[in-house]
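Diaminopimelate decarboxylase
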Amino acid sequence: MTEAKRPFVTKERIEELVKKYPTPFHLYDERGIRENARRVNEAFAWNGGYREFFAVKATPNPAIMQILREEGCGMDCSSLTELMLCERQGITGGEIMFSSNDTPAEDFVLAAKLGATINLDDITHINFLEKTIGYIPETICCRFNPGGYFEIQNTIMDSPGDAKYGMTKPQMFQAYRILMEKGAKEFGIHAFLASNTTTDDYYPALAMQLFRLAVELHEETGAHIGFINLSGGVGIPYRPDGHKPDIMAIGEGVRKVYEQILVPAGMGDVRIFTEMGRYMLGPYGCLVTKCIHQKHIHKEYIGVDACACNLMRPAMYGAYHHVTVAGKEDAPCDHLYDVTGGLCENNDKFATDRWLPAINVGDYLVIHDTGAHGHAMGYNYNGKLRSAEVLLCEDGSDRLIRRAETPDDYFATLNF
Ligand SMILES: *Cc1c(COP(=O)(O)O)cnc(C)c1O
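Structure:
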């Protein structure tokens, strides 16, 4: 079988890069990021107020944020340091959505200081926020959790009933009334009901629920609904045979529901927001790593210089990440390998029982689709250091956008 999925970087380019940046490192493709962001904006251009707020947690790097900002995106933050990433780049006000949960007081303080749009995860956060910052902002959003199961055409996509996020429907009505009494003037609705969905029906089905709720909320409380935030959850095909969501079809699907539900209710001015992370960045990053050992015991093992500390998804969720051996894109996949990192944990495997071309020590492996929730989920277990991040620029040049950690970084927080 030949490869259906090709890396955005060639073996020759990798060999140049490793002279400057030792493996492992995460590599990002500026061209891919920009082209995709433009398609997203085009898909929702029918909505005059549309905006994608990039989920910063997916790839919290200022260089990446800057590219997306240039393409018109705002930023979705969920923690103090993510807000600080915005602050240091001069991103403020309506450019920031603050969607967090179990929120510490200091996070609300900075969100309010920056003028971010605050998305409340719980009804009790109304009092908590008011006590913390001394007022209720005029523009405010509430996160909805319908409970039960989220189904599309009788297929269960996820179970919001088990999720810790958001408010129940009765709480949404109550929250809006309380917030209005406390001076809120413009409202948003937010919900995140399923993750990594590759069906084109997810956003339209979610939009249908949220638009109906918006009409009810508006009619019963009189609240002015300014925007509806469809949040994240649009997936990417991690497997070579996976379906790539058709963002134009998704945008069109949301438009139809908008015309069907909001427009007849006199709510044709509602702005649509999204808060995607994975769809914006996932395919446009990869982890470049080198084979440093081969081991033949009960199975065949390829030991690479990256480990789960550089990419946690396979170890944490058993997630599939496609692997390409650089320069062997068209070689037959006739060897069965486990590709492992060096953690003292047997789940530190990037691939298990994977058919790949014959691999030699010194070969470079490209682990695909690490642009979102890749480096970001890194950690220091076993004393492993987090890797560099490198940007492959549109003009073909490369730029170090985060250096690799050194032992000094590791020791910096210790007290000897
Ligand atoms: C994680 C997250 C996102 C982004 O999710 P993706 O699956 O990466 O699109 C958006 N909004 C919130 C509140 C999140 O927690």
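The pocket of pyridoxal-5'-phosphate is lined by residues 55, 57-58, 76, 78, 99, 192, 195, 231-234, 275-279, 372 (CB under 6 Å).
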